[in-house]
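Q: what sequence does this backbone want?
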């Protein structure tokens, strides 16, 4: 059980490093990363709507489209969670086991899709969508813990350099 939690934390650390790299080099915030992952998931899932047979095609296409929209909505709800819920979900050991189970199940679905015959042209986008959902599932549990981003630090340093330190409001002392 302990190695599952360590693996979960290792995955979080790797994704935090990736998010920090995106923030520092490309100024892409975590919010934008999550929103783009939702859009990418929906766009990568759309080719799976292709059904080669005509029988029952309208019913199956509408059902698959409903499923894609439902998962997209769930992703949006996960994206909108406040930081305290994200932090508590990250520290919960039961949710760590659940995240590993999701990672194994969706990773195996993507692996079976890519490596077992017969292959269709919709296999690659579908497998990438599943892997993207696993990454999204982890990214939505990462918080900044109140640390300012790189752009905000640089802007504050530039303002301090331009105007000095006296313009920064000082906290009001609390009488004891």
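A:
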């Amino acid at each position: 059980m302990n190695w599952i939690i360590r693996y979960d934390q290792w995955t979080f650390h790797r994704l935090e490093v990736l998010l920090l790299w995106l923030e520092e080099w490309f100024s892409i915030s975590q919010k934008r990363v999550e929103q783009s992952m939702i859009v990418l998931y929906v766009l990568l899932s759309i080719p799976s709507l292709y059904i080669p047979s005509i029988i029952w095609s309208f019913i199956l296409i509408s059902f698959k489209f409903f499923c894609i929209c439902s998962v997209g909505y769930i992703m949006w709800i996960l994206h909108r969670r406040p930081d305290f819920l994200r932090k508590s979900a990250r520290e919960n050991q039961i949710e760590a086991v659940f995240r590993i189970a999701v990672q194994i199940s969706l990773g195996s679905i993507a692996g079976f899709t890519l490596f077992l015959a017969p292959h269709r042209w919709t296999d690659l986008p579908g497998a990438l969508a599943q892997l993207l959902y696993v990454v999204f599932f982890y990214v939505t549990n990462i918080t900044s813990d109140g640390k300012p981003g790189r752009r905000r630090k640089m802007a504050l340093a530039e303002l301090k350099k331009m105007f000095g330190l006296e313009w920064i409001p000082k906290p009001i002392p609390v009488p004891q």
